[in-house]
Design brief:
The chain has six helices and no strands. Helix 2 packs antiparallel against helix 3 and helix 3 packs antiparallel against helix 5. The chain starts with a helix and ends with a helix.
């Protein structure tokens, strides 16, 4: 009965991360004789992890990437792009000055691949991003 009340309260407070691991954390905590503070910390960490994952998933969804790409699969040797500059962008060097990144070049130079890889990485680091191609952006404006 107490467990049901706990589950109902967590559900009402939208603590879905805590709710999903409650039994696991309580049973492990009892076996290892954790203090109540440690049990609470474990539950809170589970909630934070779940909220972070949900936030990243949401931000990746609103970024509207046409495909999933990463920097590891980009072949710098077959492209004229400056690898050092791309890696600087990948690290988010342009964010502190609140600058946008525009990738310009001919067909097949890797603009879409790099844009998606950079933005996905930064979104996973807690930033926001949005993918546009020129035609869609012009039509939207």
């Amino acid at each position: 009965m107490l467990r049901d009340k706990l589950m109902d309260a967590m559900n009402e407070l939208h603590l879905h991360g805590m709710r999903s691991v409650l039994d696991e954390i309580l049973s492990a905590g009892i076996k290892q004789r954790h203090t109540p503070e440690k049990l609470l910390l474990d539950l809170l960490e589970a909630e934070l992890a779940e909220r972070t994952a949900r936030s990243i998933k949401y931000r990746l969804g609103i970024a509207r990437f046409p495909v999933d790409k990463d920097l590891d699969s980009f072949e710098f040797s077959s492209s004229p792009v400056n690898e050092a500059q791309v890696r600087s962008l990948y690290a988010g060097s342009f964010l502190s000055s609140r600058s946008n990144v525009l990738l310009v070049g001919g067909t097949g130079t890797g603009k879409t691949h790099l844009a998606i890889a950079i933005a996905r990485h930064l979104i996973k680091q807690g930033q926001r991003g949005r993918y546009f191609n020129v035609v869609d952006l012009v039509n939207q404006l």
